[in-house]
Amino acid sequence: MDEIAIQFAVERLLARYVACIDDDRLEEWPAFFADPCRYQIISSENYGRKLPIGVFVATSQGMLKDRVAALREANIYEAQRYRHLVSSTLILENARGVVRAQSNYQVIRIMHDGATALFSTGRYLDRINFDGSAPVFGEKLVIFDSRRIDTLLAIPL
């Protein structure tokens, strides 16, 4: 693939990913990942200091599916939805069917009563596998800017 086609494919993957979350199609969310994979939500402070502790980590599609099942069946949290805004994507590396990319994000949270607030800002660091029929995340690091994380972090970022 040429550089423009890769850029388009990566940005299309990210657009489909956030639309899936924002449209509450969470059962489809694990399919955006390879198996095995790595999905981690981590503070920029911990990431910068190379401390591995994050808010959430999953290393397989099965773990991601369990997260969705817990959200749908077990967890109790106030009804809410997200709206993502994602920047243009910077391709950091393209080698042997794997693309490393970085994008900035903002997530706006809309509560059931209509209250709206900026919920999270940060960046995505993605390792995207291009070796199958469609690109998928081999690794997605969600690095949030603030040290403070709301206990209502229920839905994936």
Q: Would you mind describing this structure in some detail?
A:
With 157 residues, this protein is α+β, with helices and mostly antiparallel strands. The chain has a single domain (3-144), classed as Nuclear Transport Factor 2, Chain: A (Roll), CATH 3.10.450.50. The protein is built from three helices and seven strands, in the order H-E-H-E-H-E-E-E-E-E. The protein has helices at residues 3-22, 44-48, 61-74; strands at residues 33-43, 56-58, 80-86, 90-95, 98-111, 116-129, 136-144. Strands 1, 2, 3, 4, 5, 6 and 7 form a seven-stranded mixed β-sheet that branches. Strand 4 and strand 5 (98-111) form a beta hairpin. The radius of gyration is 15 Å and the shape is globular. The protein starts with a helix and ends in a 13-residue tail after the last strand.
